[in-house]
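seq as requested:
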Amino acid sequence: MKIFTGFAAAVGLAFAAPSLVDAQTVTDPAKVQAGHYAVEAGHTQVVFSVLHFGFTNFQGLFSSASGTLDLDSKAPNASKFSITIPVSSVQTTSDKLTEELKGAQWFDAAHYPSATFVSKQVRRVGHDDAIITGDLTLHGVTKPETLKVHFVGAGVNPLDKKYTIGFDASGTIKRSDFGVKMYVPYVSDEVQLHVAGAFEKQD
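struct tokens:
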């Protein structure tokens, strides 16, 4: 009886929950739907990494991003992208460090609550890769920066039924360029960035 009950429950769950097998994604950028997209905050992450006193490549994370993508799949170079990140969303594995990073000696979230990146040029460099140059504003300073972007996939999300597109992006910045100089060079000036970006179609 217990075996039958467990089997029946599993069958019921399978029919009640959306099947991930039904997720149909495309990996050819030319087949992606063009249009206006918005950042899907729940699955967008901005990870940063610094060399900590020469011992470890220590990572932190920003979340709760917002932004837009205007995608022209037939002419990718005409696409536009922007993202805004609340600085107070920073997280690390240390509660003490997380609070310090929000403070005046680091990101100073009280005075500079957001970091933004706005694209100026999109240049396709391969079948599913592009170089995006734009303006990064952090800690009240705006500097030109470059991101290497890789298209991951697109399709209808089986959970919320929204057409979604995803990218990975990476880049390197010098935090001292933005006035964040605490502990340089013991904590590296160079910061490695990795963005897992999800966008939902709006029209």
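Residues 2-16 form the longest helix (15 residues).
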